[in-house]
């Protein structure tokens, strides 16, 4: 774990900063500095303020924000309890800081949060053509379930440049 990072739940007042942060990680020019960019697969924003506000008030949901020692937002992760399973989504690490352990730190924080919520498994969905990202999650204990879900047909999540589907991965806690 990285002792210089802190994690706290997001509040409604964090929405503008989070929208800017998440979009910079997933789409646009800045995202291309990191290895997790989706800019080559999707056009449009990853999230908007209205969608993020809905996510934050969803039952069983939280969004953890991670800051470095000087208070800069360097990562975030969305979590939603679904019975005894914790759904993990929108894991975001500053594109210029990827590869430095922030993602691993956030996965650990998410696992700890899920255990405190009495969850026995973590669940994620990953775009099927994101081979390097799938491999990263598999190195961190996730396994493919064989299940797939269609990519959302809603421009609020981005406009695919090709047909996309999501693979479902899980991890026992």
Automatic annotation (TrEMBL):
It comes from the Bacteria. One of its GO terms (molecular function) is acyltransferase activity, transferring groups other than amino-acyl groups. Residues 5-165 form the N-acetyltransferase domain. The keyword Cytoplasm does not apply. InterPro entries: Acyl_CoA_acyltransferase, Bact_Acetyltransf, GNAT_dom. Keywords: Acyltransferase, Transferase. It holds the Pfam family Acetyltransf_10. This is GNAT family N-acetyltransferase. It comes from Hymenobacter cellulosilyticus.
């Amino acid at each position: 774990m990285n002792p210089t990072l802190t994690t706290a739940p997001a509040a409604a007042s964090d929405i503008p900063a989070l929208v800017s942060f998440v979009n910079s990680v997933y789409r646009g020019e800045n995202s291309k500095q990191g290895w997790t960019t989706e800019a080559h697969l999707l056009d449009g924003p990853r999230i908007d303020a209205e969608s993020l506000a809905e996510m934050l008030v969803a039952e069983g949901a939280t969004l953890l924000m991670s800051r470095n020692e000087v208070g800069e937002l360097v990562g975030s992760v969305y979590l939603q309890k679904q019975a005894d399973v914790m759904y993990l989504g929108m894991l975001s690490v500053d594109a210029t800081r990827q590869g430095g352990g922030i993602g691993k730190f956030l996965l650990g924080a998410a696992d700890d949060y899920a255990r405190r919520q009495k969850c026995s498994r973590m669940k994620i969905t990953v775009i099927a053509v994101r081979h390097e990202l799938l491999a990263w999650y598999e190195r961190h204990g996730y396994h493919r379930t064989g299940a797939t879900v269609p990519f959302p047909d809603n421009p609020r999540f981005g406009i695919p440049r090709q047909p996309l589907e999501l693979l479902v991965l899980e991890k026992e806690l």
